[in-house]
Known about the structure:
The structure holds 2 protein chains of 2 kinds. Chain A is mainly alpha-helical.
Amino acid sequence: MSDYSVTEPSLRQKWVAGALVVTYALITILPLIWILTTGFKTPTDAISYPPKVIFEPSLEGYVNLFTTRTRVSPEALAALPPPETWYEEIVRNRDMVIAGPSRYGERFLNSIIIGFGSTFLSIFLGTLAAYAFSRFKVPLKDDLLFFILSTRMMPPIAVAIPIFLMFRTLGLSDTHLGMILLYTAVNISLAVWLLKGFIDEIPREYEEAALIDGYTRFQAFRKVVLPQAATGIASTAIFCLIFAWNEYAFAVLLTSGTAQTAPPFIPTIIGVGGQDWPAVAAGASLFLLPVMIFTILLRKHLLRGITFGAVRK
Amino acid sequence: MVGPLAFATLSRGTLMSDTPIERVAKATPPTVGRWIRGLSDRTIAWLFVAPTIFLLLAINIFPLIWTVNLSFTNFRANRPNKEIEYIGLQNYERILTDGDIWLTMQATAHFLFWTLFFQVLIGFTLAWLINRKFRGNDLWTTIIVLPMMLSPAVVGNFWTFLYQPQIGLFNYVVEFFTGTPASSFQMIGDVSLAPWSIVIVDTWMWTPFVMLICLAGLRSIPDYIYEAAAIDRASKWRQFWTITLPMVLPFLMLAVLFRGIENFKMFDLVVQLTGGGPGSVTELTSINLKREAFEKWRTGYASAYAIILFVTVFGLASIYVKALNKVKER
């Protein structure tokens, strides 16, 4: 490397650029930090003005998130036996007793079941289709690929009208199976496009060599292509999972109880007298953290995933 | 790197071993095995593609046809037993002459224009800065990207807290820097500020998307082009306009296409933030459509509405893609 380069920015340029980017990053991360910290505030601290940056952490938000509580009179409270657990103590300090668990756990579990179910299905079907599109002469290939993509252009609400009627007729409304099928149908376009890109990158010679060695197509696919595509399949799976995890429009329109996922549920968390922001923040934190971690793990493939494989680095 | 043939031999080694799968394979009747082995490539191709196509036909195309059919009726989903009457093009006629729908379209246009404007401006600038390759740029890029991967509904809901006039962080920050008292303005409750409140959150959330794509564009420009320009004594400014911008343009246009389609469909974030209010100043088309379909239960009318929206997105996107391909070819 020479002393002077026309393409390498000067040190001063780097400093200025770095400072600006870091400033933007800090501003943009602030709302997320606020979600994470508000979860550990008491309701009073959460709504104090000016906003509290330094506060005494409390688990009240998390306790409120997982329980339903009823208010009791001070006399009745005094008559109760002393609290057995730390969370009962927190609740009693507010003149309340725990009435039972909240629905957050169930909703979170629904998100996991529907998310993983639909991801598994879309990857399974998507890998097969992507392999066929990548390796064989499928008639009308380009049209089919475009058709698969164009299903993504429909506004979810427009799709939801007939789906709503269809699910009602078939008894699939508010069921896990219905939501898994629906999310699979939405995700499969992403899966096929991304996976086709990943499989295209695997040299055909590997399979051809395997075929010459007496493998059948199926064996070549299973034992040569699949292991090679493992990284691509894994990152596609994470993208499908994140989509299903975040989805709101279908969930709010087509589920109400049994199969409701967390996104429509979290905004409905309310406390006594107004929204219980620490509980909402606690619920949001638990829900958003896995995605943040996956994003950091996925950063190399991020661009590809969000552009349907149109941009590859 | 192991050569292709060596690789195949390696795999063959594993084939010989007696894995559980192999045992199952041995247990399957030979006819099935022969049947699978005997399949031609063509059959396999169809076997592999068919389930996906079937699923999409069942959950995307069949419903779409059903919607078209419903759009010619006065069907109401909350009264399923009432007889369905075909009323021809009346629904379409009513939608296209309805003044409220045009207000909704205006709100959508405002939202689309300003979100795209800010996201392109900030996103490109950030990408350009990150491309100065300062130390730790990977780490900061990852941090900036975080908001776009999160659930818009959950995040949008929390932003209503940040926007609270008495206690919200957003209002506090505005007071801190401009001196405008935090309790003197309501981002969500005010008719003139609400359209901007959704633009701000969407920009916050999706600028990283444009940034990432621009960054890929910037990184795809080979150094030697700049070196040649420097030899020709082109100024930095001129290099930017004649090399950087034209070469990033296809990427930028792709980003705009994705964001344009997504924001035209926008529902979750805005529903949680403003719910379309106050009044209907932030009632974007998707929210309006949801009202017609799932609150007023005018299913036939809403179906016609949905078809009009779909045709609009599809038409605009196709024209845009043609333009994009022209830019790419240059």
